[in-house]
Every structure is written in structure tokens, then in C-alpha cells.
Design goal:
heterodimer; A: alpha+beta; seven-stranded mixed beta sheet; globular; B: alpha+beta; four-stranded mixed beta sheet; mtLSU_mL37 (chain A); 39S ribosomal protein L37, mitochondrial (chain A); ribosomal protein (chain B)
């Protein structure tokens, strides 16, 4: 039986010990205040010189109003009595530094302390304005839908698996139905399994395109990237998702004309909300760039980032808008770290833009993203901007039926997947094959 | 027994009809068949109840229903852990599962020759890349948390190695191209072997079968839609004996618990990939080589690998057989074959298992000459120093995947 989360009502007329008595009895719940009546005082404020109403007056504690008045505490008695105030005793000092019971240095005493605050985006950051905020922070222009280069990979009939629909539906059933002896698996178990199964299906294409075997997955790696954006220092740090690394970088998806055309684009702001809202403010930080891998790594170029949003509880889970923002921030972070290592720390427009793809899912809905880093000059809001193509809210299937729907002893709705859409996996596969497949549009871009 | 008695009585009564032709059907019996009681506290009643239970399982309409009926009754059972610190656990597990352990690998079948054969140098470079990424190139914490060293580096290395090797070998092996890769799946099996007298409780004095349950979680598992070919024929007489241990399993030590009797290969019966190919196990932190050497148990290192191989593979192959409808009263008509690779990140051991019989209960095992066979190698080092990686047994590592 589900536990009652609302307070149970007592018997009619019963008084509660902690509730107000007298004329205010029964007024225990916080009744939401009705809006104030519209009077000249409430609309324009009190006239100058008039005394403020009691509830608007500044209340200072009694000790400040009557100097010399002190609370009588039981500190002198050295034992508790209920009618005297609780004393504020001084904090006990050990007298010597015990490393096992030390609170640690204060922020101001740490060697990396800086006066200027830095805003950090990590894997649990849920941004208020979502993608718009991420676009402003990363100086990016949004394009709806996937780029035509990736869409052309989908249209090629040679880029499909054998029995693709059947195998994808088997993968979905495996993750959603067959993975556990219980009837319904939790999202924490089925979401990563679905992603692993889809990746396994994509890897079987290595027989057709041998360059697909020149890729390596990396889990639990940490990225670090820092940049300045209109007098705020921003950083992207920490573990994000599963990264697919490749030997060869992805070629730029947008042509030079499109990149130059972004100069005219104006970034969207959302005054009065600050663009750094929901980012963690830190005073102790170090600005560094780190792709997560050492020099000499045989697969140096980031290809695709996979995000799995598998929290069981809905309030903890990222909404699609926040998931897209997180994908954008971390794709940008990986691209920026790679660009700084390849081309140096000076802010400039890149001759060879860095492309990083990103796919995020919560088990049913997929978000696809292709990000192209055109410039590392992010301090001003003018000039060449980065580009991102987002294909949002792609449903792989509508819902799963675990038990058969029986109406009048006849099975009307058999158990299984309902509303399967094959296009979503085609896009997943196209993003995986991007970079390994030679298509006709490639020669036209450069 | 009762029906022929009734027939004899009817025949004796009408001996005059012996010389006449029987044109009509035999008359229906006047009385219902006389059988033993169903609920009495007697051996014949117990036998009748067992027969009824077996008949119900035989007549189950689907395999899921069969599994449900087989494991419906919950009683105290021994929980067998494949990764165990018990001394000489491999001999005990062989006796529980009627397995003969044969050192070495099984007789090899025809090797695939021609253009489909895999390129070993390419596979070797993939393995080296996976090793280097996890050990060196990827920046990780300097020191992992207590007892989490195995999941810090060796675990991700094995995962990466298996996924890239299975993808690369998919072109030469069509079975791997249609396989299913599971990460940390559940594998469970429940069986009965031998008999004992109940010593405590309200059922004291009754003779009960000894029940076992294995709940295993391999690191990675590959399942395929078609069964692997057998290594040796079903009734092959193996040179070797199943160890007989005349002690109660409690001495191992093995402890009893009562909970759901689960039979699971990693996914439900409806999955088309219902046959197993290879499992990959990672030795946990508490059973690592260094700890056993420090405790003066150097000979138990091999024992842990063997016990893990025998128990995990028996559970997996037997669960696969049950998914096809076989059980202890309906023995397998074809052998079920699976493989396992057990390692601690540096030392690898390879095991192949052929399940020839599921009939392990006392009643079914009376005239059963078949034994299950487990082939296993010793564990040996896969790579030497950091700078010079050589993988002499990469061929054997890839053989299970072929």
C-alpha cells in the first residue's frame, strides 16, 4: 500500500498540542495568501512621510533596540533549566592540529583561490533556460534538424543492417522486457542496456566499413575546458558520458560560406535572467584544458558522446531540454579542449573546425546533435560563431505493453512494442557511420 | 499395477468367453483404479505425489510455465558461489554437478581457412590499444578505492577488448554478427542432487533431495541464436572420474537459504539468442593472486579459476538446456556447449564446458552413464612488461570467439 504523504486529519473538533488554539484554532495548514486588494497604498506604495504598516516595518532584535539588555542563560548554573535561554558558548579549540579532525583550510587560504568567481558546468547542472542558455554560453548558432551530410548517409541503402527492423526491435525488447526475471525492469537497468545493444548493432557494420574498427569507446573519463565569455570565466569539468574516439577527425560539416554567414547572427539573451544561472560558482579553481587522455593516444579525436539519462525518479531525471543543454555544453567542452591542444591557447577562428557529435537518451526518446567548433574567440559576442544541428525528441517507440490486454476473454492487445519508428535507429547509425563512410556530398563541401 | 489387476479379475470371472471372438470393445472397468493415497504419510503416497508433479511439468503448455512449475516449491537450499574462497572448491563443485575436469582444451574442430580467416596482427593491435588505453592513456584516479581495483582498470579493459574483438571477428564468423552482448547479466540455476535426511524442524526424519542454487554475474556474456557444435559425442566415455565426497556440503563451507528458485540465462525465454557462446569473468579483489600468495595458498589460485569455470558454465549451459524444454526427468538429447574466459586482468584461463546430462537427482541418475565434461587450461600471463606487449595466447583468446 502506498504510504500516505499528506498529513492525516484528526477527529473532528480535536485540538492538536502544537497547533494554535483560541480564535485561530484549525488554522494549521499554510493557506496561500490571496492577492492583496488594489488600493493606492498597495499599487503606489505608502505616501512619503506616512508610517509604514506594522508588517512592513523593519524589525530589529530586542537586544539592538534596548542596549545593555542581555539574555539570562543557564551558563552560570552549568546545568539546563527549561525557563532560561540557551547560552551561546565559544567553540572548543583542540590546541594542536589533528589531521584526522581538521576541517581543512578555508577557501581564502587555499593556493588556487582567486577573487574572480568562475562558473562551472558539471554533469548534474540543470540549466534553467536549457538550450538557449547553452547557445549563449558557447557562442553558437542553432540549426534545426541534422546536417544534410548526415541525412545523405541515412538515404544510402548500403548503410543499413540486414534485418535492421527486426534486430532493433529485438534489442528494444531485450532491454525493456527480457533483461530481468521480474515483469518490468527499472530505467536504471534498461537504459544503459539499450544503448549498449544499439552500439553493438552499429559495431557489426565493421565488416562493411573496416575503418569503423579504428575506434575505441572510453567510459568514465574526465574532461576539462575553460573559456571566457563577456567578462565571466566559464568551465566545463568532470565525467560526462561515454566517448567514442576515432583515429581520424570528423571533417567539417558546414561550408565556409555558412561559417562566415554566422557573423551576422545575434545571440539570444534572456534578460533579466543572467546567462550564468544554475552554474556552480567557485572561487578556488584552475583554468586548464584536458581531453581526458594523455599525449600519444592512438585515437586522439573525439567522435561521438553518448549520454544516458537513467535516473529512476522523475524529479532527479533530466528533462529533454536540460539533457540537450548538457549535451551541447559537453560536446563544446570536448571540442574546445581538443582545439586548444591542437591549435594553442590563443583565441582565433579555426581553419579546420572541430566537429563532435552527441546522442542522448532516456530509454525511449533520443536527442541527436552535431556540434562544429569554428572559433575559440569567445570573449565577445560578435564575429564567427559555432554551429550546432539538433534533432530533438526522436521517439524510438511509443510504449511497451508488458501484459496482454484481454477484453471479454479475448487477447485484444498482445504484449510487445507499440509504435516502433525505424527512422530513429537510422539516424543513430548514420551518426555512427559519419566519418567512415564516403558519400557524394563530401567533395562539394571543402 | 491396479489396472492389470482389475483386468485379471474380470478375465478370471468370464473364462467362458476365452474361446469366443471378441468383436466388441472391452467392457469398462466396474470400479475406479485402485491407487495409493495422495495425502497419506507413506512412501507410496510420496511417490504418487512426485509422479503427479512430474506429469504436470511434462504437460506444461510453454517453457515459461514449465520453469515456473519446476521451481515453484521453495525450500532451504545451498547457495553455491562460483567465485569462492573455499579450499579445494573445484572438487566439491564437480561432485555437485557430475562434471569431469579434463586439463587442456577440447579436440579442435576444422579450423576456418581461406579469406574468411581473421588477421591476428590486426586483432593483436586492437588488444594492445585496449590495454594501453585503460592502463596508461586514459587519465584515472591514482589509487582506486579499497577493494575496487579490479573494476578500476582490468574490468574496463576486458569490456573494451571483448566488444572490439567481437566486432572485428564478426566478418569472419556470421554467428558473432548476429550475437547479443550482455554486460553484467544475471545467470541463475536451481537443481537437486543427492538425498539427505532433514535434521531440524517439523520435517525432521524425512528424506529430502539436496537443493542447490547458483546466482552468477559474469562481467560480459555473448549469446547467439544458434547452438555451438559439440566437442565430443553425447555418450562419449571420458577418461576421468567425477570426485565423490562423502561429507555434507556444509563442510565446504556452503550455507543454506530459502528464496525464489530462479533459472535465467541472461534474458527471458522469448529472446531469439537463447544459446550461449562465451562468458568473461573477472576475479574479484578478495580472491586476487597477491592475497592468496600472502595467505600461503598458492595452490588455491588454480582452484579458484577452476571452481569459477565449472560452476558458472554448468549453471549457464544447464539453464540453456532448460530453456529448450529439457529438465532432470527429460534429459537432453543433444549436448549443450559453452565457453568461458576467466581472468584477473593479467592472467587468463580458458574453459570449455559440454553439458551431456541434466539428470542429477537420485531417481534420474540411477542408470545414467553420461557425465558433463569441463576442459580447462592453467592460467598464464597474457602480456609482459609495459613497453613490450606480446600476446602469445591471443590465438587461444580468439578461438572461443570463432
Amino acid at each position: 500500500m502506498a504510504g500516505l504523504w499528506w498529513p492525516a486529519r484528526p477527529a473532528a473538533g480535536a485540538l492538536r498540542a502544537w497547533a494554535p488554539r483560541g480564535p485561530h484554532r484549525g488554522k494549521t495548514a499554510q493557506v496561500p495568501r490571496r492577492p492583496l486588494p488594489r488600493t493606492p497604498w498597495t499599487t503606489r506604495g505608502p505616501p512619503p512621510g506616512a508610517p509604514l504598516p506594522r508588517s512592513w516595518q523593519d524589525k530589529r532584535p530586542v537586544q539592538e533596540q534596548i542596549p545593555g539588555l542581555e539574555q539570562v542563560t543557564y551558563a552560570g548554573k552549568q546545568y539546563f533549566v527549561p525557563w532560561l535561554a540557551r547560552p551561546r558558548l565559544p567553540r572548543w579549540e583542540r590546541g594542536w592540529h589533528d589531521p584526522r579532525h581538521s576541517p581543512g583550510p578555508r577557501y581564502e587560504a587555499m593556493p588556487l583561490y582567486k577573487e574572480r568567481v568562475c562558473y562551472v558546468c558539471h554533469q548534474r547542472t540543470k540549466m534553467l533556460e536549457g538550450v538557449r542558455q547553452a547557445l549563449w554560453l558557447t557562442k553558437t548558432k542553432l540549426m534545426e534538424g541534422l546536417p544534410p551530410k548526415v541525412l545523405s548517409i541515412i538515404d544510402e541503402p548500403a548503410n543499413q543492417l540486414e534485418n535492421e527492423d527486426e534486430r532493433v526491435q529485438n534489442a528494444i525488447s531485450h532491454a525493456r522486457v527480457w533483461i530481468t526475471t521480474e515483469l518490468i525492469p527499472k530505467r536504471e537497468s534498461y537504459c544503459p542496456v539499450l544503448l549498449e545493444d544499439l552500439l553493438h548493432l552499429c559495431r557489426t557494420m565493421a565488416s562493411k566499413y573496416p575503418s569503423l574498427s579504428k575506434r575505441m569507446l572510453a567510459r568514465d573519463y574526465k574532461v576539462a575546458a575553460a573559456w571566457e565569455r563577456e567578462s565571466s570565466i566559464l568551465q566545463v569539468r568532470g565525467m560526462n558520458g561515454i566517448l567514442l574516439n576515432a583515429i581520424n577527425p570528423l571533417l567539417p560539416v558546414a561550408s565556409k560560406d555558412e561559417i562566415l554567414a554566422t557573423e551576422n547572427h545575434v545571440l539570444e539573451t534572456f534578460h533579466p535572467i543572467s546567462p550564468t544561472i544554475d552554474l556552480q560558482e567557485v572561487n578556488v579553481y584552475e583554468e586548464r584544458h584536458d581531453t581526458g587522455f594523455r599525449e600519444g593516444y592512438p585515437y586522439p579525436h573525439p567522435h561521438t558522446l553518448y549520454f544516458v539519462e537513467s535516473a529512476n525518479v522523475r524529479p532527479v531525471r533530466f528533462r529533454p531540454e536540460q539533457l540537450r543543454a548538457k549535451m551541447l555544453m559537453f560536446a563544446f567542452g570536448n571540442a574546445l579542449a581538443k582545439a586548444k591542444i591542437l591549435y594553442g591557447d590563443d583565441p582565433k577562428v579555426l581553419e579546420h573546425p572541430v566537429v563532435v557529435q552527441s546522442i542522448g537518451t532516456e530509454g525511449r526518446i533520443f536527442q541527436f546533435m552535431v556540434f562544429q567548433l569554428n572559433t575559440t574567440d569567445l570573449a565577445s559576442s560578435d564575429g564567427v560563431k559555432n554551429l550546432v544541428w539538433i534533432d530533438s525528441d526522436q521517439y524510438m517507440y511509443d510504449y511497451i505493453r508488458y501484459l496482454p490486454g484481454i477484453r471479454k476473454k479475448v487477447v485484444k492487445f498482445p504484449p510487445g512494442i507499440y509504435g516502433y519508428r525505424p527512422d530513429t535507429f537510422k539516424k543513430f547509425l548514420a551518426l555512427y557511420l559519419h566519418g567512415a563512410v564516403q558519400d557524394s556530398t563530401q567533395t562539394q563541401i571543402l | 499395477m491396479a489396472a492389470p489387476r482389475g483386468w485379471r479379475l474380470a478375465g478370471q470371472g468370464c473364462c467362458r468367453l476365452l474361446h469366443t471372438e471378441r468383436s466388441a470393445a472391452p467392457p469398462p472397468p466396474l470400479y475406479p483404479p485402485v491407487v495409493a493415497s495422495h495425502t497419506a504419510k507413506s512412501k507410496s503416497a510420496k511417490r504418487r505425489r512426485l509422479e503427479y508433479f512430474y506429469q504436470q511439468v511434462h504437460e506444461a503448455p510453454s517453457i515459461a510455465e514449465k520453469l515456473r512449475l519446476y521451481g515453484r516449491l521453495q525450500r532451504l537450499k545451498y547457495v553455491v558461489y562460483p567465485q569462492t574462497f573455499s579450499l579445494n572448491a573445484d572438487r566439491w563443485y564437480q561432485s555437485f554437478t557430475k562434471t569431469v575436469f579434463v586439463p587442456g582444451l577440447p579436440p579442435a574442430g576444422a579450423q576456418p581457412a581461406g579469406p574468411g580467416a581473421p588477421d591476428l596482427s590486426e586483432l593483436r593491435s586492437l588488444a594492445c590499444d585496449a590495454l594501453l588505453q585503460e592502463h596508461f592513456y586514459q587519465r584515472k584516479r591514482e589509487r582506486p578505492f579499497l577493494y575496487r581495483e579490479q573494476q578500476h582498470v582490468p574490468g574496463p579493459f576486458l569490456t573494451q577488448l571483448v566488444s572490439s574483438l567481437s566486432a572485428a571477428l564478426g566478418s569472419s564468423n556470421p554467428l558473432l554478427a548476429t550475437s547479443c552482448l550482455d554486460l553484467k547479466p544475471q545467470v541463475n540455476f536451481y537443481w537437486e542432487r543427492g538425498e539427505t535426511v532433514v535434521c531440524r524442524g517439523y520435517r525432521t526424519g524425512r528424506i529430502d533431495p539436496v537443493r542447490f542454487q547458483i546466482d552468477d554475474e559474469p562481467l560480459i556474456q555473448i549469446r547467439v541464436p544458434k547452438q555451438l557444435p559439440e566437442f565430443v559425442p553425447l555418450d562419449y566415455s571420458v577418461p576421468g572420474e567425477v570426485p565423490v565426497i562423502n561429507h555434507k556440503p556444509d563442510k565446504l563451507p556452503l550455507f543454506k537459504r530459502q528464496y525464489d528458485n530462479k533459472i535465467f540465462i541472461g534474458s527471458k525465454v522469448a529472446d531469439p539468442c537463447s544459446y550461449g557462446h562465451t562468458q568473461f569473468h573477472l576475479i574479484p579483489d578478495k580472491l586476487k593472486r597477491e592475497r592468496l600468495l600472502k595467505a600461503n595458498l598458492a595452490d588455491q589460485i588454480e582452484v579458484t579459476y577452476r571452481a569459477n569455470g565449472i560452476a558458472s558454465l554448468f549453471a549457464w549451459t544447464a539453464a540453456q538446456a532448460m530453456y529448450q524444454g529439457f529438465w532432470c526427468e527429460a534429459d537432453v538429447t543433444r549436448p549443450f556447449v559453452s565457453q568461458a574466459v576467466i581472468s584477473d586482468g593479467k592472467y587468463f584461463a580458458f574453459f570449455c564446458y559440454q553439458l551431456n546430462t541434466l539428470a542429477l537427482t537420485v531417481k534420474a541418475d540411477q542408470n545414467n552413464p553420461r557425465k558433463n565434461i569441463c576442459w580447462g587450461t592453467e592460467n598464464f600471463e597474457e602480456y609482459g612488461t609495459r613497453n613490450h606487449f606480446f600476446l602469445p595466447s591471443l590465438r587461444i583468446l580468439c578461438a572461443p570467439l570463432l
